[in-house]
Amino acid sequence: MSAKTADKIATAVIIFFAGIIVLIMAGLLGFILVRGIGHISFDFLTSPPETIKKGGGIGPQLFNSLFLLVLTMLITVPLGLGAGIYMSEYAKPGKVTDFIRLIVEVLSSFPSIVVGLFGLLVFVNVFGFGFSLFSGALALTVFNLPLMVRITEQGMQSVPQAQKEASLALGLSKWKTIKSIMLPIALPIILTGTILAAGRVFGEAAALLFTAGMSSPRLDFSDWNPLSPMSPLNPFRPAETLAVHIWKINSEGLAPDAPEIAAGASAVLILMVLLFNLLARWIGRLLHKKFTATK
Amino acid sequence: MQNIELSTKDLSVFYGEKQAVKGISLDFASRQVTALIGPSGCGKSTFLRSLNRMNDLIGGARITGEIWIGNENINDPKTDVVLLRQKIGMVWQRPNPFHKSIYENIAFGPRYHGIRDKKKLDQIVEESLTKAALWEETKDRLNRSALSLSGGQQQRLCIARSIAVSPSIILMDEPASALDPISSAKIEELIAELKRDYSIIIVTHNMHQAARVSEKTAFFLMGEVVEYDDTSNIFTNPSDKRTDDYISGRFG
């Protein structure tokens, strides 16, 4: 076989596999959207669910998912950035650093149900946060932190050594170099990691079953005092997220239109993730432009 | 007798077990260009990088001996390297402008060192770019990305960036070797201009360049300085056979 034929065959095979992947993805996405999109209406997005009657919505669940996302990211991003920068720039290479890296790797392959049970044990019971958004956010942090740390470390390591040296040679401190020269260059990579982590928050159900709980109190959307128990902003109330709701309604839903609600909620979930992705990328590009003056 | 800007006493650099620089003692006169020449791997770049403690960044590098600037030995653990590096600028082989605008590349250092006044910063940017012979080409696009400049322009920008924090010494590590001949000639012209205000130590592989731009030349071989003399002597009448062999192209 000539090199040219081999090259052609390899190209064809690769295109074939890529095509299969695209087909599967498009099929899955299309299936969920086609089944669910008809059920989405303003009413569906805003009204609370019904237990046994038809026509319940997913309003509180949608809000819970978004709120939990914000809460989790508020905890995960600073921790992840800090640890990632430490691992990349401050930790001396050696046995201890390698050991920390190993732990991070192990942690990232933890099954999420185990993280959920750990959360139940530690956050819900020992620390006494109860079934709450806060417990859920902490469990998701355990779940997402390894990803965030690794991505930050990779992002920092992707900055050319010459950039770092140029900054230090001007007499800038290490921290200033990290903050003003390295982080802006690493930003696109770190942002991708953050989006991945955020996507997992949206989609995660198992880790939340035992931490954030499977029910929502009757939320009063006119009460925005985070301390009052019926307020949507109270981080210490139980909160069922969209993903948990889909799981619950599929396995034990009593409403006659449960399959439609599940389908509609799935479509909403996917659209939310998509929207969030696009938004985050757009903001990331804006920031990158601002810091690096690229047009 | 000329003023001595910087001198090393018995300076050695080790990478782990390997000794890359072997007890070098050299004096560098102020407002002169000193060229460090020698075959690849002779330790000249390593020597240069230890003068502003850049080798500190490399894990496993160990530097012994003394480096004197004025009456301070800067190879001392107590030396504030951040302050030190402000006094010693550096330019690398490959242009490495920051991924920022042309203006920001220059203003970044001075602003960090305490100059906040916009007018003053504008003035520093203009002066530095003018000194680096880049002002005319860039004055209308200071807000464009530095990466939009050509390689030669980027290198002059890097020189402008280093003089913006007003160092007294500039270290150059083969500053023209990654550039085309025309850009390279511009850098050489620039070096001839800059030595009126700065003491320049330049590592170069190009012996013609060394002969053209420098007053003094040190010939490095295997981590040692074989000969250190006026450039004219080194190139016309070297006292060591090995120097003669190297500059006449018999090895290296």
Helix/strand structural class of chain A: mainly alpha
**N-to-C series of helices and strands of chain B:** EEEHEEHEHHHHEHEHEEHH
CATH C-level of chain A:
Mainly Alpha
How many helices of chain A? The count is 11
Most extensive protein-chain contact, per-chain counts: A-B, 25 and 35 residues
Largest sheet, strands/sense/barrel of chain B: 6 strands, mixed
**First-to-last CA distance of chain A:** 47 Å
Please estimate the helix content of chain A: over 70%
Helix content of chain B: 25-40%
CATH superfamily of chain A: MetI-like
Number of domains of chain A: 1
By DSSP, the count of extended strands of chain A is 0
CATH topology of chain A: the name is MetI-like fold
Give the mean pLDDT of chain B.
Answer: 90
Q: Which oligomeric state applies?
A: heterodimer
The low-pLDDT segments of chain B are none
Shape of chain B: globular
Put simply, the count of helices of chain B is 10
Give me the CATH architecture of chain A, please.
Orthogonal Bundle
Alpha-beta content class of chain B: alpha/beta
Integer-rounded radius of gyration of chain A? 23 Å
Helix and strand arrangement:
The complex is a heterodimer of chains A (295) and B (252).
Chain A (H helix, E strand, L loop, with lengths): L2 H35 L4 H5 L12 H32 L4 H14 L3 H15 L6 H25 L3 H9 L4 H30 L2 H4 L32 H11 L5 H35 L3
Helix pairs in contact in A: 1-11, 3-6, 3-8, 4-6, 5-6, 6-8, 7-8, 8-11, 10-11
Chain B lengths: L3 E12 L2 E12 L3 E5 L6 H8 L9 E9 L2 E2 L7 H7 E4 L10 H11 L5 H14 L3 H4 L12 H13 L5 E5 L7 H14 L4 E5 L3 H7 L2 E6 L2 E7 H6 L4 H7 L5
Parallel strand pairs in B: 3-8, 3-9, 6-7, 7-8
Antiparallel strand pairs in B: 1-2, 1-4, 4-5, 9-10
Helix pairs in contact in B: 3-4, 3-6, 4-6, 6-7
Organism (chain B): Paenibacillus vini
GO molecular function (chain B): ATP binding
Protein name (chain B): Phosphate import ATP-binding protein PstB 1
